Amino acid sequence: MTIQLARKPAEVSASLENQRVLLIGARHGVGPAVSAALADAGAVVVTDDEVSGSGDPTAVVDQAIERLGGLDVLILSAPPVRNKPVLEMTPEEMRAVVESELVGPALQMQAAARHMAKTGYGRIVAFMSMSGKAGVHHGVAPYAAAKGGMLTYMRVLAAETAEHGVTVNAIATALFEAQTVTMTQEKRDRLRTQIPVGRFGYNEEAAHAALYLASPLAGFVTGECLNLSGGRFMD
Known about the structure:
The protein is α/β, with parallel strands linked by helices. The protein has a single domain (17-228), classed as 3-Layer(aba) Sandwich (Rossmann fold). It contains seven helices and six strands; from the N terminus they run βαβαβαβααβααβ. It has a six-stranded parallel beta sheet, sandwiched between helices. The chain is globular and about 50 Å long. The protein starts with 19 loop residues before the first strand and ends in a 7-residue tail after the last strand.
């Protein structure tokens, strides 16, 4: 095993200027906010909806590398939760959830990590639901299981790629403002009382967290899952 000597913190920049980034899930969830923040930070961004799709989930990674001339950062924005009681789900529905929420993203992270390991630098950031850690929501059993699997997968991948200058981290979100707009005021008020900071989160706050983990500053952070829950969930 060859351990690379890292630069001292004073020599590391927070800038994402000219960093080549693939953002998967740019249209949903926190994706638009992350995309805007990356652009403001000077990154060169390709999104999954800008490259042609195929049955192979890794094709988007390969095409992004070709378009960008390399890949420094991969960010995966979590798709919407599919709510349905587990007792009512068919085997096909359960397999589809696990395939899209675990298998596909895991293969994309693998493809990106292989490229980054060859170049000696890379950042992978995966958004996931807090249900993957806490399993507290009804109707999301396969989704929560898949995200729990993603958390473990992320940590193993982080351990295996750390010596190559690649960091792999996750961000777990819970109760963001955008998720509560269809709720009754009574439910919003009740849920707000469960959050120590007294409010719901904002997509822009998720984007700020992603920018840090995607930046050169986060070289000593890997295999971690950052809770964005306003203190509702703590490790």
